Amino acid sequence: MRTLKSAIIIVCCYLWPWHQLYAATEVIAADYLETSPHRELIELALNLTAAEYGPVVLTFSGVMVQGRAEQELKEGKRLHLAVFAPSPERERDLLPVYFPLSQGLLGYRVCIIAYGQQSRFDLINSLQGWRNADLSIGQATHWPDVTILRHNNITVVTNPIYTLLFEMVRQQRFDCFARSLDELNRDLQSAHATDLVAEQQLLLHYPQLSMIFVSRSFPQLAERLDKGLALAWQRGLVQQHFQRHYGDFIEKTRCQQRRIIKLENPSLSEQSRQALQKYALPPEQLLAKPTQACPS
């Protein structure tokens, strides 16, 4: 009888959907997502798929920079997911979820500059004008943007520690700390931004997206997030999230009527490009005529 019971249990285990056996009660994300608007979309995707995959709780790791988070995901032991811009290496070594969490805002860049340096940017109208002015951009060493900017023949100064970039631009060790439209307000409000301001005239743009990367140790989690985000988009929940978190700032950017400097992104994969085409805001829509009166 005991042998028969054991056989029944084994058979049931094989017949039961594997992803339900896999379902974890905890999903561990990189620490910086705890206060990010992306957290809301990740939790939404997990909740919308709970009936199929089971309930989970999103928790967060200890403090880590992007490079460390990427390595932890490759090891597949202590971290389930993080959010990065894509690169060929990340798409090869991790499981990408091809969904632009901020509808492509990561590729729209405004310079954080030292106070009193605005005049250096006022007469620039093109990428060639930027190059002729020999303006440099600061970025973290491990960010994919470094490759993009250098491909466009822009001088880039790097540092592995994100917070030190604020001090470097303050000391004018480079001219522009290029930050995306979904990062700019947060950075200017941080304690590191003393005597730093947003440049007023220009908007750098290259196709880029913030997307979830999952450790290869957890393939069903990547599948689940992909399904959940697609469902959230179909129900209009992603669009509501975008308007709630970024709508006012987009209107302000439209009112500023910035001059766009378009850059190429040579590293963008076809899957990322298709995700941007499907879900992201193109420049002509993002920078359309303001829907409300602009302050005089």
TrEMBL record:
SUPFAM superfamilies: Periplasmic binding protein-like II (SSF53850). It comes from the Bacteria. This is Solute-binding protein family 3/N-terminal domain-containing protein. It comes from Alishewanella longhuensis.
